[in-house]
Design a protein that fits this description.
This protein is an alpha/beta fold and 301 residues long. The protein has helices spanning 22-35, 58-74, 113-116, 185-197, 214-217, 222-240, 273-295, and strands spanning 52-57, 82-85, 88-91, 97-103, 175-180, 202-207, 249-253, 260-263. The strands form two sheets. It has a six-stranded mixed beta sheet with strand order 1-4-5-6-7-8, with helices on both faces. The protein has a two-stranded antiparallel ribbon with strand order 2-3. A hairpin with a 6-residue loop joins strand 7 (249-253) and strand 8 (260-263). Helix 1 (22-35) crosses helix 2. The N and C termini lie far apart (45 Å).
Length: 301
């Protein structure tokens, strides 16, 4: 491994059998089990300062949703917030950092990059589950019907499901975010810009012409190798700690020759969480109308 660190991969529950918040609860359970193992566990407690969250696509979404929950928990009390876990009070402590590739930050697919970057991406205009010929079984389509396998339709715009709608990341740990020229780029840019404005250290990398999760799909590409090396460096840096607040910076990596251009994280986009939420709600309402029309019945909205 490039980091030389131990790795824990979470086999969280999957939709549509287990819609939101099942996967998020699984992440919470694993994280607090690291901090405070149950009696008889095979591992000793792990310091929060030694934990780096990493995820791509839906996994990146879960990392950000988890941070939003932790931020809300820390707001519940002025000093030393705790939760009851394993019948003990366990401190709510942020991980040392979060590292994300190709963030799935907009479940409604409502932002401009969804159309503008379509020619570069592997993601389809219409998800497989919405295709007319998608196989039907007892799991999907759901009963009562919903348009998205992950959650109830009314929840699509919630920050725990579409993190681009989160209005604040103040108090979050440092972030490393890598993004291609992909359909979900706008959501990632909104998250990075908002976090940087809130004083969070954000290390941004944007790879020209790269599709969604390119580093995982094409690991031998030079851009993928560069991405993984940078990812590992971020994990090491966050794990070493130190004062990195306010050091946000961005890099734009050109496709043809790998030339790197330094860019401002706060200048990544003019879109805001409020504008994103407005677009998401408009798209969600369109999905609601579509499901009523296609099914001929009132959906679970």
């Amino acid at each position: 491994m490039l980091t030389g660190a131990r790795c824990l991969s979470i086999q969280y529950r999957l939709a549509p059998q287990y819609p939101f918040p099942a996967a998020l609860l699984d992440v919470m359970l694993v994280y607090f089990s690291l901090l405070d193992p149950a009696p008889g566990s095979y591992h000793d407690p792990v310091e929060a300062s030694s934990i780096i969250l990493a995820g791509d696509s839906a996994g990146a979404n879960l990392c950000l949703s988890f941070i939003q929950v932790m931020l809300e928990l820390k707001k519940q009390t002025i000093t030393d917030p705790t939760i009851r876990f394993h019948n003990r009070n366990v401190a709510v402590q942020m991980p040392a950092g979060i590292t994300l590739l190709s963030v799935d930050g907009d479940k409604t697919q409502a932002l401009p990059s969804w159309i503008e970057n379509g020619k570069y991406d592997i993601l389809r205009d219409v998800p497989p589950t919405a295709q007319p010929d998608f196989p039907k079984d007892s799991i999907w389509p759901s009963d009562p019907p919903r348009t998205d396998p992950y959650c109830h339709d009314l929840a699509l715009c919630h920050p725990l499901i579409s993190p681009a709608a989160a209005v604040s990341w103040a108090g979050a740990p440092p972030m490393w975010i890598a993004c291609g020229q992909e359909r979900l780029a706008d959501a990632a840019k909104i998250i990075a810009r908002t976090a940087a404005q809130d004083g969070v250290c954000v290390l941004w990398e944007e790879y020209q012409s790269m599709p969604h999760t390119w580093a995982q799909i094409f690991p031998r590409w030079s851009q993928s190798i560069q991405c993984f090396e940078s990812w590992a460096q971020a994990c090491k840096r966050f794990g070493e700690g130190g004062n990195i607040t306010g050091e946000s910076h961005g890099r734009y990596i050109k496709a043809e020759d790998g030339e790197i251009e330094m860019i401002s994280v706060q200048g990544l986009t003019s879109l805001t969480p409020a504008k994103a939420l407005e677009a998401m709600n408009k798209k969600r309402r369109g999905k609601q109308q579509q499901i009523v029309g296609d099914k001929g019945i009132k959906a679970s909205l």
